[in-house]
Amino acid sequence: MTTPDPADRVLARASLAEGDPTGWFERLYTAAARGEAEVPWTRGKPNPELAAWARRHPGEGRRALLVGSALGDDAEQLAAAGWAVTAFDVAPTAVESARARFPESRVDYVVADLLNPPGEWHHAFDLVVEIINIQAMPRAFRAAAVAALAGFLAPGGTALVSEVAEENNEPEPGPPWPFSRAEIESVAQDGVRLVSLETIRDGDRYWATFTR
Ligand SMILES: C[S@@+](CC[C@H](N)C(=O)[O-])C[C@H]1O[C@@H](n2cnc3c(N)ncnc32)[C@H](O)[C@@H]1O
Questions:
Q1: Where is the Methyltransferase domain (predicted)?
Q2: Which of 14, 24, 172, 195 could pair with 209 in a Cys bridge, judged by C-beta atoms 3.0 to 4.6 Å apart?
């Protein structure tokens, strides 16, 4: 007997075969809502490295943009640390679920696509957070996604970027499609500079900070 592929990979392959890099996320969230699939990245609590960073960096009302907000745990963590958070996801069901989970939230949850973001977000955020979203799209979309990400950062701001590290993981058919060190460093473009780059979780992921 062969082991069935997890639902996210099955949905991803069908979506990609249609030339659509992101449609499978909405299908996965709605299947999960029906109890027919699991969303593998759902933790029910914030990313621990982001939580630790937020404790050391209170927002004091400054603007933060969270990419790929999923069910909202990371966005709420940043809001609790005093950041004025805009959090977006390409999957409408994820955005609706985040709003429903946190009805009193001060976070502005928005449906938007990193590959075609609102123009007013250009250079608009003091903090930009990208955690394991770009790696969930095929590599053909990476350069465009990284350029959009870099474009959000305001002068003097900070971007936090974390992706699975290709150098420390066995090659597997995606998703995810891990990042090389050079791909992480490529966020430093168009006036953005790399501040630090380390591996976390025993080398499994990169954690990089940038400024403009
Ligand atoms: C692998 S999950 C990671 C979620 C969260 N960042 C975390 O660390 O758990 C990727 C998330 O990004 C969203 N996403 C994927 N492509 C996107 C895009 N082009 N624009 C906005 N959100 C996207 C998906 O819907 C999904 O919620």
A1: 66-157
A2: 195
The number of residues in the chain equals 212
Atom 27 (ligand 1): residue with closest C-alpha? 70
The single-letter code of the amino acid at 27 is: R
The CATH class that applies to domain 45-211 reads: alpha beta
Tell whether ligand 1 has an atom less than 6 A from the beta carbon of residue 47: yes
Q: Is 131 in the pocket of ligand 1 (CB under 6 A)?
A: yes
Atom of ligand 1 nearest to the CA of 40: 1
Rounded CA-CA distance 194/212 in Å is 9
CB of 113 within 6 A of ligand 1: the answer is yes
Domain boundaries, the chain: 45-211
